[in-house]
Amino acid sequence: MKTTAILLFSYFLLTVLSCKQEKNSAQHYQQENEQANHWSYSGETSPEHWIEIEKNSDCGGEYQSPINIIHKDVDSVASKNDLEIQYTPTTLISKVENNGHSIQFDFEAGDSISYKNKTYFLKQIHFHEPSEHKINGVTYPIEMHLVHVNKAGEITVIGLLGEEGDESQLFEFFESFLPLEIGARKDIHQKIDLSELFLKDKHFYSYYGSLTTPPCSEHVNWVVFKEPIVLSVEEVLKLKNNMPINNYRNEQPLNGRVVRLNY
Fold first, then answer.
1. CA–CA separation, 260 vs 5, rounded Å?
2. Spatial separation of the C-alpha atoms in residues 109 and 94, rounded to whole Å
3. 3-class DSSP state for residue 111?
């Protein structure tokens, strides 16, 4: 009787352990599968496949970004006053992170813009190499996105195209926190003066689009400056070495949207 009880207990224990192992294996497989299906910029999870793998996203929407801006086709309007940049030299960067898709700098409250009479607060800056937006089919070495959000959750993104030339003190400051491994972050809490970008007297294109990364949310105001910013070849390469190769989304169709040149 005692032997039978021991055998039954052993069988029960083996069954429990086997089920637990199967459950752990299933969870591990599910995690691996979710990771494998996560979006990226290459292979089977590249931008061409985002519609397939990001089921609940807007990636297949009608008003997607980025676009190729053809200058001769834009609607020129004297509405430069639509955008008022309110960057101050006392704004603090809170942290920098390599999120596996780009280098991203997060900001504390301070800098803001006024766009079409609404105030949007600067939340973060990140980079794409080469550029996502094109002007007359020209791809630039780098594009910098300044993401602003208002209290209602509406988004306005400023896109700055970069060309190679003289060294930029602003980019030297950004890159002083690099290199940064994927998944790593650094707390900063230092002042930065984005007025060095000298955006107030420049022309810009504007259109209605989306985020350029999943979930590709639409209802995004895009402000893409016509005149590029300048940074050195070395600065371009240093950013490039800390991000995925070609971390840009492919060009999206206009689908009847109007692009305006604000002057």
1. 82
2. 9
3. coil
Residue 10 has, within 13 A of its CA and on its CB side, a CA count of: 6
Nearest-angstrom CA–CA distance, 155 and 210: 9
CB 222 within 8 A of CB 209: yes
Annotated active-site positions, please?
Answer: 101
pLDDT one-digit tens code per residue, 199-230: 887 899 999 999 999 999 999 999 999 999 99
Cis peptide before 214 (omega within 30 of 0): no
* Neighbour count for residue 78 (Cβ, 10 Å): 8
> At residue 17, does pLDDT exceed 80?
no
Q: Which amino acid, one-letter code, is at 216? A: C
For residue 35, the 8-state DSSP code is: H
Which candidate, 101, 232, 108, places its Cα nearest to that of 164?
Answer: 232
- At 82, phi and psi to the nearest 5? -60, -25
**pTM of the predicted structure, to 2 decimals:** 0.85
pLDDT at res. 124: 98
CB 231 within 8 A of CB 164: yes
Cα atoms found within 13 Å of the Cα of residue 160, Cβ hemisphere only: 18
Q: Is 91 helix (H, G, I), strand (E, B) or coil?
A: coil
Q: How far apart are CA 225 and CA 205, in angstroms?
A: 6
| pLDDT of 36 above 70 | no
Please report which residue ranges of 46-121 form alpha helices under DSSP H. 50-53
Neighbour tally for 250: CB within 10 Å: 12
| Separation of alpha carbons 7 and 65, rounded Å | 65
Asked whether the beta carbons of 148 and 113 are under 8 A apart, the reply is: yes
Rounded Cα distance between 119 and 233, Å, is 35
Q: Looking at this protein, which amino acid is placed at residue 165?
A: G
